[in-house]
UniProtKB/TrEMBL annotation:
It comes from Medioppia subpectinata. This is Uncharacterized protein. One of its GO terms (cellular component) is plasma membrane. Gene3D superfamilies: P-loop containing nucleotide triphosphate hydrolases (3.40.50.300). InterPro entries: ABC_transporter-like_ATP-bd, ABCG_dom, ABCG_transporters, P-loop_NTPase. One of its GO terms (molecular function) is ABC-type transporter activity. Keywords: Membrane, Transmembrane, Transmembrane helix, Transport. Residues 22-104 form the ABC transporter domain. Residues 133-197 form the ABC transporter family G domain. The keyword Transmembrane helix applies. It is found in: Membrane. It comes from the Eukaryota. It is a multi-pass membrane protein. Belongs to the ABC transporter superfamily. ABCG family. Eye pigment precursor importer (TC 3.A.1.204) subfamily.
Length: 204
C-alpha cells in the first residue's frame, strides 16, 4: 500500500488509452509506477503496489500478456485495456478519480462489469467522477449521483433515483419502458432543426 504522505488528491483518466503495445501489462504498470510514485519509494514498495492494483482490477491473469495495439488480433481485450487505463491512475491511490467516458468502445456486458468495479472502488471511500456515453439502463442504474448539463448550465444535480421525480415535476415524465438516460439526454439536448424549441425547454 502506498504511504499516505505520497497519496495524491486526484487523477484524470483520458478517454483514449495510450499504451506501448509491445509492453506487457505488468511492464506497463512498473513503468508507470516509476513515473508516478515518489522517487523516495523503494523498488519493493513499487512492486507491491503494482501487484495490489493488478489484483484489485482483475488483471492478474493477463499481467504477463503483451498489451498489443487496438486493431491487432493479439494482445489484451478491450475491457482489459480500459481496466489497465484505470489501474495506471490508481497507482498513487488518489482520493478523487476523474474518468472521461470509461465505457466507450465496450459492449454492454463489459461496460457493466467496468462500472460495477468502479462502484466497488467508490464504496471503499474514494470519489469517482466520470462522463458516460450512451449507457444502457443497467449501467445507468449503478450510478448514485447524477449531474446533467444543458447548454453549459446545470440542469440537474442530485441522486439518480430522484431525477425521475424532478423531471416529472416539470411535466416531463419518462415512459415506464424507456431508458432514463436516453430520456434525460433527449430533454436537455439542443436538437438539430429544433434549436429554438429545445432552448425554450432548457430555459424553462
Amino acid at each position: 500500500m502506498v504511504s499516505k504522505e505520497w497519496r495524491v488528491v486526484g487523477n484524470y483518466g483520458l478517454k483514449n488509452d495510450l499504451f506501448i503495445g509491445k509492453l506487457t501489462v505488468r511492464e506497463h504498470m512498473r513503468f508507470q509506477a516509476r513515473l508516478r510514485m515518489h522517487r523516495s519509494t523503494t523498488s519493493e514498495a513499487r512492486e507491491c503496489r503494482v501487484d495490489e492494483v493488478l489484483r484489485d482490477l482483475g488483471l492478474q491473469k493477463c499481467a504477463d500478456t503483451r498489451i498489443g495495439a487496438p486493431d491487432e488480433e493479439t494482445g489484451i481485450s478491450g475491457g482489459e485495456r480500459k481496466r489497465l487505463a484505470v489501474a495506471s491512475e490508481l497507482l498513487t491511490n488518489p482520493s478523487i478519480l476523474f474518468l472521461d467516458e470509461p465505457t466507450s468502445g465496450l459492449d454492454s456486458f463489459m461496460a457493466k462489469n467496468l462500472v460495477e468495479m468502479l462502484l466497488n472502488m467508490a464504496q471503499t471511500g474514494r470519489t469517482i467522477i466520470c462522463t458516460i456515453h450512451q449507457p444502457s439502463s443497467e449501467v445507468f442504474s449503478l450510478f448514485n449521483q447524477l449531474l446533467l448539463m444543458a447548454d453549459g448550465r446545470v440542469a440537474y444535480l442530485g441522486t439518480s433515483g430522484n431525477a425521475l421525480e424532478f423531471f416529472k415535476s416539470l411535466d416531463l415524465e419518462c415512459p415506464s419502458n424507456y431508458n432514463p438516460s436516453d430520456f434525460y439526454i433527449n430533454k436537455v439536448s439542443v436538437i438539430p432543426e429544433l434549436e429554438e424549441e429545445s432552448r425554450e425547454r432548457i430555459k424553462y
